[in-house]
Amino acid sequence: MEKILKTRIFELSMVFGIVLFLFIIPVVSAAFSSDYYAENPATVGPGESRTLNLLRLMSSTNDDNNGSLKYKVELIDGAGIATIEGKDTFSVTPSQPALVPVKLTAPSDVAEGTFYNITFRITDVTPSEGDVGMISFVKTSTVVMQILVKKTVVPETPATTPANNSSMTWIIIVVALIVIIAIVAYLFFRKKKTNVK
Questions:
Q1: Under 8 Å CB-to-CB from 73, ≥6 apart: which residues?
Q2: Which CATH architecture has domain 28-149?
């Protein structure tokens, strides 16, 4: 009897655990990505201000709204150097992710190599038709990003080299030769046809 009771309790706890797991899966987090991470932090120079798209908000078609979601992005801790530019609510679809522009301004007296941690809260604020009059769960993620103070190097645009001009010259010469050969061939065959008559 005791063994049957333990088996029943085990079975019920397993069923409860599986149901709870399946229930929690859709409320785990908001979908986002970034071009900046620990090995490639966003950078700003001392005394410099620049705006970077630090977050990319995304959606898939595996949600209740056919992929159309609305996210609210809050800067919980900007470390005194970051502010979100423009709006704080973004609409996304599977084919149209949203970029979150953040203005970074480093103090002029900060040493190069200094790291700042900034913290975002991303909340799914998509209205759901099924949540009317019911308890609803909010999908929220917290993101911490490192900002490195480092002089920003603007990549130079490559100058046109003689080799690039040379290849363009050869292309023009080849096209001109093809046109000349076509004209000569046309005139030659035209002359031959008039001589045959």
A1: 55, 57, 84, 88, 89, 90, 100, 120, 121, 122, 123
A2: Sandwich (2.60)
